[in-house]
Amino acid sequence: MTTPLEALVVFAGGGAGAVARFAVGRAVGPLLPAVGFPWHTFTINVAGSALLGVLVALCKDRPTLLLFLGTGVCGGFTTFSTFSVETVRLLEAHRPDLALLYAGASVAAAVGSAYLAMLTLGPK
Hints:
Number of domains: 1
Mean pLDDT: 93
Strand content: under 5%
Distance between the termini: 32 Å
Order of helices and strands: HHHHH
Number of strands: 0
Shape: globular
Largest sheet: none
Helix content: over 70%
Number of helices: 5
Radius of gyration: 16 Å
Low-confidence stretches: none
């Protein structure tokens, strides 16, 4: 059962994460190659996955902090829905090669970065 405090903690973190995603997207977007590959979303999702892996490893005994930073901030920062739409848009643009590359690389890099963070910082 979710308590009102838990809901508020996730809400606050989600808002902060969404604003961070917007700011990072605006800041790094112009720095990334404009080749049709959605680098900004890819970068955000991989970084967010790595950060969540770090948080899961370090905040095991701090559930409220993990709710705020993990579920809230990382949940608001990363964006599976944008990834999905960008993949469909690549298919609509008759770029199945880029769509497949984007989908495969996104999953591999995001899962890999979370795994490496948890492996590196987890219990020894």
